[in-house]
């Protein structure tokens, strides 16, 4: 569905505000944490729509902007380790580094590479449906992608507040969790071919 | 005879039992495996579907995508309009007047002012579709999803969703009047339109994921849980 691509771009642009200056508190309390991640959510809308509607940038430029923002804002290392599950701890440091490097590129390509205005999709507005705390220093931001003539798309982000930044730890598009999906996939591949098999599979996808 | 029956029942139950992997704790078990008791069969059907998609369905859908937008839009609207009677009936079965009357209103508006359903006149004027298949009705009355199944050509489903599909097929008014070849043509058109409209997600799951079977299964089951 185009919602997947639309939401993917929305994720990236939402993540844009994660690279905004953040507080340097060593131990953020709940109210400050709420404002930091809340600022992240609120700051995104204008930037998201701006990038979408920026006619002065080529598709490649937009794609690069989105990739840069995505990699800064989404905690790909944490997600990469999580989705590998039990296979992570039995992997050498070198293989872990190689895995994370490839995972970062793979995850970025999954969400960014298909961004193509020729696909004819548009985002009319992104509405912040809510931001609620889930655990200490963790929040869930719910958004709705609104497009004329198309059903709205529910996208939610699991956010974690760190001393210097707020990062995305999971993305759920119409209920489909990035973490759950990748963990299921990667477990299947690693179970048959080990972490090397996962790395090789990602490299193969990246080369396609 | 009783022993034979009991044995058969035990075999059947065992076939549907959740798989347990020895030597692994619960954290190592893929939760989606628990809803996939006939995984070997599902994987075989999935491989067939993948081949059919790559060699037949995708090329046709890609060709369809190159047709003018008005043609694709009109076809999609027409086929959707044919599904509204089923929405009306299911809305009534669920004792949900919002679904029933909205769907009835859409059917009437689109069939007339929408020129036989070619234009989504109702949707353009704020009356959005409230799709309610028989699977929704079953869920409304507490019937659980059941096991994950992969249907030939149709793709991911569950036991409940499959039952819903069958009933919806009978509720389709076009099927009451069309000959068998035309019914097949309608189903084929439905499939091609759906494939084209969902091309991004299908591309991602079938061709860009590391393990297409598990990716499709996880995505489908999560989305179904979310939708309910």
Please give a structural write-up.
The complex is a heterodimer of chains A (208) and B (228). Chain A is an alpha+beta fold and 208 residues long. Chain A contains six helices and five strands; from the N terminus they run H-H-H-H-H-E-E-E-E-E-H. Chain A has helices spanning 2-14, 30-53, 59-73, 76-84, 93-112, 178-207; strands at 125-135, 138-146, 153-161, 166-173, 176-177. Chain A has a five-stranded antiparallel β-sheet with strand order 1-2-3-4-5. In chain A, helix 4 crosses helix 6 (178-207) and helix 5 crosses helix 6 (178-207). The longest helix of chain A is centred in the last third of the chain and has 30 residues, at 178-207. Mean pLDDT of chain A is 77; it is low at 1-35 and 116-120. Chain B has 228 residues and is mainly α. Helices cover 68% and strands 4% of the residues of chain B. Chain B has helices at residues 2-16, 39-65, 69-82, 84-93, 97-112, 121-124, 134-140, 159-171, 173-177, 180-197, 199-208, 212-227; strands at 148-151, 155-158. Chain B has a two-stranded antiparallel sheet with strand order 1-2. The longest helix of chain B is centred in the first third of the chain and has 27 residues, at 39-65. Chain B is globular. Mean pLDDT of chain B is 85; it is low at 1-26. The interface between A and B is medium-sized, with 33 and 30 residues.
């Amino acid at each position: 569905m185009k919602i997947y691509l639309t939401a993917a771009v929305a994720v990236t642009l939402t993540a844009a505000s994660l690279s905004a200056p953040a507080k340097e508190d060593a131990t953020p309390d709940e109210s400050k944490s709420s404002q930091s991640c809340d600022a992240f959510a609120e700051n995104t809308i204008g930037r998201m729509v701006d990038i979408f509607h920026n006619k002065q940038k080529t598709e490649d430029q937009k794609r690069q902007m989105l990739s840069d923002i995505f990699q800064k804002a989404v905690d790909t290392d944490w997600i990469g380790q999580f989705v590998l599950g039990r296979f992570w701890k039995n992997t050498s440091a070198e293989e872990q580094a190689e895995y994370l490097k490839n995972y970062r590129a793979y995850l970025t390509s999954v969400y960014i590479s298909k961004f193509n205005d020729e696909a004819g999709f548009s985002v009319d507005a992104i509405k912040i449906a809510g931001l609620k705390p889930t655990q200490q220093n963790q929040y869930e931001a719910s958004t709705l992608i609104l497009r004329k003539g198309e059903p709205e798309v529910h996208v939610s982000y699991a956010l974690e507040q760190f001393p210097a930044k707020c990062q995305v730890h999971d993305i759920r598009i119409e209920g489909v969790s990035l973490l759950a999906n990748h963990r299921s996939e990667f477990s299947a591949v690693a179970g048959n071919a080990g972490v090397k098999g996962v790395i090789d599979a990602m490299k193969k996808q990246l080369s396609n | 005879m009783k022993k034979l029956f009991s044995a058969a029942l035990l075999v059947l139950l065992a076939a549907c039992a959740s798989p347990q992997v020895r030597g692994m704790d619960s954290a190592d078990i893929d939760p989606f495996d628990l809803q996939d008791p006939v995984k070997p069969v599902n994987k075989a059907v999935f491989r067939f579907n993948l081949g059919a998609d790559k060699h037949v369905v995708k090329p046709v859908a890609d060709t369809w995508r190159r047709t003018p937008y008005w043609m694709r839009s009109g076809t999609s609207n027409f086929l959707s309009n044919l599904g509204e009677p089923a929405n009306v009936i299911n809305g009534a079965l669920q004792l949900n007047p919002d679904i029933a009357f909205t769907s009835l209103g859409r059917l009437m508006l689109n069939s007339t002012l929408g020129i036989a359903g070619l234009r989504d006149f109702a949707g353009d004027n704020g009356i959005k579709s409230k799709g309610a298949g028989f699977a929704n009705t079953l869920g409304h009355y507490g019937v659980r999803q059941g096991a994950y199944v992969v249907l030939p050509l149709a793709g991911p489903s569950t036991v409940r969703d499959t039952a819903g599909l069958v009933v919806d097929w009978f509720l389709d008014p076009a099927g009451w009047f069309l000959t068998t070849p035309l019914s097949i043509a309608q189903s084929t058109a439905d499939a091609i339109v759906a494939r084209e409209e969902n091309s991004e997600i299908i591309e991602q799951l079938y061709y860009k994921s590391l393990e297409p079977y598990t990716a499709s299964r996880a995505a489908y089951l999560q989305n179904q849980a979310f939708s309910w």
